[in-house]
Every structure is written in structure tokens, then in C-alpha cells.
Amino acid sequence: MLPAETLRNVVDSGLEEARQQALGYCPVEGLQSLRRGIAARMRTRGVAIDLQHVLILSGSTQGIGLIARFLLHQGDEVVVEIPTYLGAINTFRALGAKVIGVPMDNDGMRVDLLESILARRQPRFIYTSPTFHNPTGTVLSPERRRRLLTLAHRYQIPIVEDDAYGEIYFEGKQVQPLKAMDRYEQVLYLSTYSKVLAPGLRVAWLVAPSAMIERLSLHKQVFDLNTNALGQWMVSEILQHHLLDPHLAMIRQRYQHKRDLMLEAIQQEWPSGTRVNHPLGGFHLWCRLPTDMRARTLLREATAERVAFVIGEPFHIDGGGHQYIRLSYASAEEDTIIEGIHRIGNAMRRIQERRSSRDESSQLERLPMV
Q1: 3-class DSSP assignment, residue 286
Q2: Which domains does the chain have, with CATH numbers?
Q3: Under DSSP, is residue 102 helix (H, G, I), strand (E, B) or coil?
Q4: Which of 59, 127, 295, 366 is deepest in the core (most CB within 10 A)?
């Protein structure tokens, strides 16, 4: 579902005229036309900003790293949901930070438990993915969003909102970003075009107070002089010519269909005792395996079937997640989804059959000799 034809048309129609802008160096903050287009689009989602509040990034993971380097020192604490995006965990730990986890339920982060953490500790910021969370797919409830912002203001702690999947919703109205409810500039907002256009463009953005954008731009300049200008120009052209919304409508429909296909295949193929979320957007299914089945064991067995997935442990900080796996329906073709779920189901049944055989053997060993 990569928009190859749209990108080709953009290049064919405008690259010659815009070659200096698209193929040369550009400001470290990003092309003004792109920053202006992003700011305009953010305003339609309830976030009142101008271009000076936008910093263009080479992927949103770069933004996580920039913010972390800007705010953290060795030994500082960061609060995250558990589970959470493994790239964020790795970034914070690489900088010497201590990562503190807040459990989640079907309504997102347990903000009631967060309050007790903030009362006892002094984390430098809270990292959260409140809309179609990676890996669980949950959406933080409106009540919890309000409470989270209240707590952040009370304790004067910034929130880093990672909104990679906010445009990929399937049912009902689009969920407004947490940033749209932010009255005190507590929220630093990250998003990306990797999920809705093409990851190879490496174009993402940060929304923050203008003074912070200026300082982060200096930090960014150390790591890359500017985000690739051609990718920025292409995204800017797509926004200016109103080409993004038709593409979004198409991919939402396709991703929803593939989500439904994967859920149906799991229901038919996997043994009882499996629990799977039903995300209203995003890319992932978060699956709890039957009792006593470990994700690593299943991965080894599934690899023999030439199929793979991400186990739950890397999304945790405390050694948890042993019974969880994350599946993605985003890039796989429909027949691959059906066949892959079938093969994982075969692997699960083999594990259960071996366990059943061992249990029977153990019972026979305990029988009295006559």
C-alpha cells in the first residue's frame, strides 16, 4: 500500500522546477513549506500551532532520542507504559536512565497508579503512546487523558506523546491527540509519515514550544545536518495538493480488512485459551497465549514453519511478557496472513501435544508397581 504512483506523479510534475529545494541542503528545522503544511494539518486535529512549533525529524525514533538527550542525565528516571515501544526502552536505557513502568488495562495506562509514582519519585518525563498503542493497540480513555494532563501539570513533568498510528483508525471518529487537550504546553508531540506514506522517506515531526524547537534544532544538527530534503519536499507537495486524505481513506479500509482477516483466522486456527485484542486502529494484534505456553518456545516452533513474530518480552522492562506475542497485519498480503496464522496454529498444537504426552508419561511413572 505504498503510494508509489502518487510519489511518481509528484516527482514528474514538480521536481525540475523545485530541484534546488528538493535536492539541496535545507534548514535543520526542515523545509518551511512542510512545517507550514504540518502545522495546518495539526490545527484540523485541535492542536493550535504554527510552523515555528514544528521540527522535522529523520523518523520519530530520532525524536525520542533527541528529547531524551535534551532532558535526561545519567541516573534520571523516565515513566513509560508497560508494555511499550521497545525502541523507546532501548533509547532511554542507552542514555543511562532508569525506566519505571506503569501497568495498562483495556483503557490504556493505569493513571491511578501513575499518581502514586509521581508522588514518590521525580521522573524527568512521561513517555506514552495513548492512541493505538504499540504493541497493545489500546486507546487511552478521555477521562484518563484529562487526569494524565492534570498530574503532569501538578508535578511539572513533561509528557512525550508518540502518535505514530493516530491517522490509522477504522471505526468512528478520529481520536484527537493528547496534545489537543494540552493547555499548559506540557506535551511534546511526535508523529511520522512512515506509517501512512512510506518508511523509506524518513520524515517525521515534533511539536513543542518554539524555544524548545530552537534548542532541539541545535542538538539535531549534531546528528544530521538536515532530514533528507527530497523526502521532505515530496511530503510537502502531497500536503499542498491535498493528496494525503484520499490515500489515508484507502489504507484505512485495507488495514481494517486485513485486521479482520487476521482475527478471523486466529479464531479458526488457534487453540482455546488464546486471548487477542481487537484494535480500532494501528498495525498490531497483541496476543496472550494459552496457559503454560511461552512465547519463546512458540517462536522456535514457528520458525520451523517458516513464520515469525515479535515476542512480548522486549516490550517489557521487568522480564514480563513471556506469554505474549505481537502480530502485524500491515505489510503482509492476505494469503500470507491466512497461511501464517495457520502455521502458528500448527506450532501451538504441537507444543500442546508434546506437553500432553509428557503429562501422561509422568502419570504412568507415578503408578504403583504390582
Answers
A1: strand
A2: 4-242 (3.40.640.10), 246-357 (3.90.1150.10)
A3: strand
A4: 127
